[in-house]
Fold:
Amino acid sequence: MIKRNSNFAKLSSRYLFREIENRRREFARNHPEAQLISLGIGDTTEPLPHSVTEALKAAAHRLGTREGYLGYSQEQGFQSLRKKISDIVYQTKIQPEEIFISDGAKCDIGRLQLLFGEGLSIAVQDPSYPVYIDGSILQGVKEIIPLPCTPENGFFPSLNSLPRVDLIYFCSPNNPTGAVATHAQLEELVHYAKKNQVLIIFDAAYASFIREAHLPRSIYEIKGAEEVAIETNSFSKWVGFTGVRLGWTVVPERLKYSDGTSIRSDWERLTTTLFNGASNIAQYGGLATLEIEGLQEADKILSFYLENAAILKESLLSQGCKVYGGDNAPYLWVSCEGTNSWELFQSWLENLHLVVTPGSGFGTYGEGFFRLSAFNSRENILIAKERLRVNLKMNSIQNYGY
Amino acid sequence: MIKRNSNFAKLSSRYLFREIENRRREFARNHPEAQLISLGIGDTTEPLPHSVTEALKAAAHRLGTREGYLGYSQEQGFQSLRKKISDIVYQTKIQPEEIFISDGAKCDIGRLQLLFGEGLSIAVQDPSYPVYIDGSILQGVKEIIPLPCTPENGFFPSLNSLPRVDLIYFCSPNNPTGAVATHAQLEELVHYAKKNQVLIIFDAAYASFIREAHLPRSIYEIKGAEEVAIETNSFSKWVGFTGVRLGWTVVPERLKYSDGTSIRSDWERLTTTLFNGASNIAQYGGLATLEIEGLQEADKILSFYLENAAILKESLLSQGCKVYGGDNAPYLWVSCEGTNSWELFQSWLENLHLVVTPGSGFGTYGEGFFRLSAFNSRENILIAKERLRVNLKMNSIQNYGY
Structure:
């Protein structure tokens, strides 16, 4: 019978967020009375903006009419949506033809790896979103080099000592640490990539949470980045499309392989061959998001989540915890103060009835931390705050019991 | 700079259907007066069934409400949808846990190849849907063996002389020939696969067009197939979801790799890692399709397309053409009577203003044929019929000019 892709054996047996969900379910089954609050998986909770909802409904309605029915569209997405992203998100600095609409950043991160030759050396921020590593392992990557991101280096890795790699995954605002790279830091990254001929895959899925105007929302705000960087982005966290599924990836025209051929052209071929476009209903929702009304409504929801983050952060800080992120990102990165992060996960689940994400699930340098997600109702955030107040006052963060 | 996946160079530079679309556009630009009718790309044209449209609208509406909002769901799809497909499509012979909801068969065909080890030998029907080969090439397949399907063998390949392969792609009802494998033929295929330990990827995306009750709609109607076959299927052609994007893949529990480990379990890991589920709105549409009303409405549309196929087929037969398929499939496979199929494409485009798909785009054994798609309005089909009547009467099929 057919042989297994031997790389599967190199993956941990369970995907982090499924593991958390399984543990949460098991606890809920055994303790049906517990009022669990999930601060774990970074999943949006607020309803879609009104104007976006209406656009989705109208799109669905049109599909039921003879005049409005639409079958296949271009695999790369509606031209109108590519144009609008070019205009609104990139102020036309990126051309529509360089923007490829997808069913989400995660799916594109998987597909992107098919562009490259075998035996790659890659570098990833550590801690980081597990998909960069898992996807690379499945495609037979040769070497994975962690770029430690810790409070000591301000969550920006030292590039000086980095051995030669082909590809760097970089996420800002960062999942899980909530850190946002400054303009100077991204300049350093792009400079390094140009000098050493390294490709950057820049994950900007949380860019819409950036509130401080001086912080870059796209790698292409850095001069020359279009020669070394692919950027992936998403409507998921921006407008609550985690379930609706819509994202995009930028592959600039000026980006070339070592043999001088165009990466953009292969990506176009790949999406045409192995993808059939994002759902047209979702794409109409994306168009509505980029209208003035949609942008304003989405911004209100983003601010709401950031207020949640601020409430949690202040609460933890007032209890003496070490907390990072949460100012321009929906995630807080909290020190476990010496406790193992899965143990802390289990204990907070059992004693505080709060679900968090253990830092070690994001990499070796994530151990000793846990991630809190600000995606929740205000009511739940205030209950969580109260549980923290009562419990952390009586106990150190290590003991945290009821 | 990063190295190119050298397999890209092995692909033809353009995906077949993009090439056709480009040629059609160019002609339309230069001849704005021409009333082009596309019998080329197999894209649905009828509006969605009413009950399905209403379900999509209701789903979109709920996403805008606090009670109805839904973020991430399980990557494998709604449990309710998996259960319903198990009940309705497979009469519970396939379990919900073996059914994985996708954003379409094409995307899954791409992802499936990541399950297997390198250096595969694969066999594909020739002619066949180009994605099997293109996707395999990108994943570094070692050897591709064509299985000639011609009028002479009733479009069912001879398996006796087939050298050892790891994987057979098999599509029934077939795209492009419109041929449907009989129960006895699929038994032969499954028997061969079991005896020689070959995996089958069975593409059943057109199964809903089968009208003759004795013809199998799923490979799992054959005893023992669950030990050797993966089946992929889609709502695209069934209910007009080509743009909405929804499909599924069955990976049976009993299917194992050569090392005895479970393929289903790796597929679950892969979908979890590199996929984030089909759009939830589309999934609600899938649920509505599987209700009695949805099934009946969809069936009416399928019958409508099959009537289109019958009109075209009769028209061509009455002109003395050799025509295959179209009885339990939306495609007709027509002999070019000695003409090169791209030349015929160009000539029909220029002279009949009809867009067809040249057979050579589907493989070596597709040369000498072209595919006609029955996805169109009745009005267009009747105009096409009239153009054929007037022109083919005066000319042989080779000359076909106005």
Notes: The CA atoms of residues 40 and 356 of chain B lie 4 Å apart. The mean pLDDT of chain B is 94. The domain at 6-48+294-393 of chain B is CATH 3.90.1150.10 (Aspartate Aminotransferase, domain 1). Chain B has two domains: 6-48+294-393, 50-292.
